[in-house]
Write a structure and sequence with these properties.
Layout (H helix, E strand, L loop, with lengths): L1 H26 L13 E2 L4 E2 L1 H27 L5 H18 L1 H23 L20 E3 L6 H10 L4 E3 L3 E12 L2 E12 L3 E10 L2 E11 L2 E6 L2 E4 L2 H14 L6 H4 L4 E6 L2 E8 L2 E9 L6 E9 L6 E14 L2 E11 L7 E10 L13
Antiparallel strand pairs: 1-2, 3-4, 5-6, 5-17, 6-7, 7-8, 8-9, 9-10, 11-12, 12-13, 13-14, 14-15, 15-16, 16-17
Helix pairs in contact: 1-2, 2-3, 3-4
Amino acid sequence: MVRILSISFAVIAVLHGLIHLMGFVAYWPLANVPDLPYKTNLLNGQLELGAAGMRGFSLLWLLATLGWIISGALLAFGRPAWAPLMLGAALLSLVICILDWGVAFRGALIDLVYLVILFVVFGLRVQPAPFPAYTAALAYPAETAPIPEGLPEPVERFYRLTYPDGRVPVYHTAVISGRGTLRIMGVTFPSRYRFIHKTGYDYRHYFESTFYGLPVFKVNEHYLDGRGRLELPFGVVENDLAVDSAANQGLWAEMNVYPAAYLTDPRVRWEAVDEVTARLYIPWQAGEQVFRFHFDPQTGRVLSLDTMRHRDAQSGLIQWTAGGILVPARNGHPAKEILTATWADEGTPWLMLETEDMAYNTDVSDYIRQTGP
């Protein structure tokens, strides 16, 4: 739907630009244009330009034509530069139409519509400020554990690459913060987030989606003692098995930011599939849930993980894929620089996050039950 609107927006922009070409033809002049009769004055006769001045004015029409057509083409091909170029074209076009109001007022109305839309577009491009760094004191002593024997081949390769000394940190808690984008009802908002984990058991999510850097939506999610609760902009969802199931999967998927946790929890088990794929079984109530991990055959890194997951309380199971780019250790801990989440029936990520701050093994027993950042 958004793509169709973008194409329509681009086509109208190009057509609007071609109409501006008439002003260049009429005022150079190159031909007689009935809707734009030649004259040498503007502002209903109050501003006399003469023949040379009107030629200069006609070049502004040509410049606006080029701006509308090029920006429309860039939008159609998904190039980010379309917006500033179209803003310039719309402002120039508005000035032209005001100067020639008697015959061009309709164009001014179109320009105003585009300027309103561009105001929204630029508002959705402004990233919020990051949350302050989380600085709570450590509550657990530093400890490590050996990489266990008998892991599937791609899993073994990944952990040996990530932890070359053969030992992995033990994580009891994690607080992960950053910024990115979150799609809500078809609109992609810049956002900032904080995840608080009791590793393998509980979490709290806090999102702020923003417009010109100011919060317009706030999302508080809790998964505590096996029960999920979502405080969303349009209501609260809780006491639902599908929500609880999806929350447990979300917790374990996010732990891929600190993947050592998959080796130090005795409830977890890996199963081989082939040389680039393995299954991870995680605890869920009295049974298990399963992720499929995909590894890069050249680098050994995790490319993505997927699982069958509920999108909401009403939906059935849908394939959900989390992707990311694992970057070198930060403060001694591996980190995901970019995280994405995609529903199979949507095809594009509804969530894209960049990890900016991480704190491990602090006391979150109270913090995980609060709301807000």
